Amino acid sequence: MQRKNKKSKKKISKPVKFILIPIVILAYLAILVYMFYGDKIISHLVKSQPVITRQDIVKSKSKTVKPNYDFSKVKSLTDEDILKARMNTDKINYQGYVSVPSIDVTVPISLGVDDYNLALGAGTLYPNQQMGKGNYVLASHYIYTDTSLLFSPLVYKGTVGQKIYLTDLKTVYEYTTTIHHVVKPDDMSDVEDLNPSTPEVTLISCNVTNQNGRVIQKGVLTNTYDWKDAPKDVKDTMSKQDNRWIK
């Protein structure tokens, strides 16, 4: 009777084990950290919005990145979007800031509504918008895991009478909120009529839920200041942003 040859099992060499074991341990620890602290890390990344200077705004005019104005393609914000946005801040066409100080909203404005823009702040919904003229429409995200981020405070704290400020760091435009309401996800009637003779601002959130739709906060222009003459508390609000993530 012939003896059957047993198939020899390949053993992992010790050097390979020394490499693989730390990698597996680190991967496991990374998963645990994300499970317990992922939301806090992402919230911190969103709160640490870029600091915009007047020079950044001037430089943005020479950037070759073409803005996307197709609001229908905006999808829910993911952790990956936020991380990618942090790695691509140099591609953003910054325009200034929008601020609603009474509810702690202050985010950078950039051209268009692509994923990077809306992960970093607010984006313009139409090309050729001008602050202080017509309907200046801005969109940003609602984040249910942290209702203090981006346009989330508009959902819970926005109300008629609040001051809304736009600035290109040369001029500050003060608006007073006249409308705050919820519309169906496909209702764009508040943002489609661009009438240059009626200076107003429209802030629009992404879907709060499929049933409830979007929050709209509109205001009319009530004052204009040179940057140097603007209220100190307004300027302070826009200078507190933390740019450690884009250095």
Detailed description of the structure:
The C terminus is likely disordered. This protein is globular. The chain is an alpha+beta fold. The longest helix has 34 residues. The protein starts with 13 loop residues before the first helix and ends in an 8-residue tail after the last helix.
Counted by DSSP, the helix tally is 7
Strand arrangement within the widest β-sheet reads 1-2-3-4-7-8-6-5
Measured between the Cα atoms of the first and last residue, the distance is 76 Å
Instruction: Show unreliable segments.
Output: 32-38, 40-46, 242-247
What layout of secondary structure does this protein have?
Layout lengths: L13 H34 L6 H7 L18 H9 L6 E7 L4 E6 L4 H6 L1 E3 L10 E6 L11 H6 L5 E5 L3 E13 L5 H4 L7 E6 L8 E13 L5 H8 L8
Please name the defining characteristics of this protein:
7 helices; single chain; alpha+beta; disordered C terminus; 24% strand; 8 strands; globular; 8-stranded mixed barrel; 247 residues
